[in-house]
Design goal:
The chain is α/β, with parallel strands linked by helices. 46% of the residues lie in helices and 17% in strands.
């Protein structure tokens, strides 16, 4: 668990995207927010001006380390994500509940300029 090593690896992995001037970067499928924060920060630093979308595959309550879903949204926004949200680990209803919590918390934290994304599974899960 070394932030600098992780971010250095991220920068190596996205060098080609930077060289080809991509329009946006999507950081997704994280189960704990800390890793997603590090990734967003690395992309923002290495590719300034490129919008960053960040989504977590967590439930409506917490990430895998117990960070509340709303707080996860705030952490992603604080890291610099332009778009925050939930992605394909749960069914549409659970993802919608998680997304609602993120929206409420991010707005309450004072972030006015952010977008929300949701990429739920197309079928029901237990």
């Amino acid at each position: 668990k070394n932030k600098e090593l992780v971010q250095a690896e991220v920068k190596k992995q996205i060098e080609d995207f930077k060289d080809h001037n991509v329009d946006l970067m999507i950081c997704e499928y994280y189960v704990h927010v800390e890793e997603a924060e590090w990734h967003v920060e690395a992309v923002k630093e290495f590719m300034p001006g490129v919008p960053v979308c960040a989504s977590l595959c967590i439930n409506e309550n917490t990430d895998v380390h117990g960070v509340p879903t709303g707080a996860c949204g705030v952490k992603l926004a604080a890291a610099g994500a332009d778009v925050v949200g939930i992605n394909c680990h749960y069914d549409p209803f659970r993802c919608l509940e998680a997304t609602k919590k993120m929206v409420k918390a991010v707005k309450a934290a004072g972030y006015d300029k952010f977008e929300i994304m949701i990429q739920q599974l197309a079928y029901m899960t237990p």
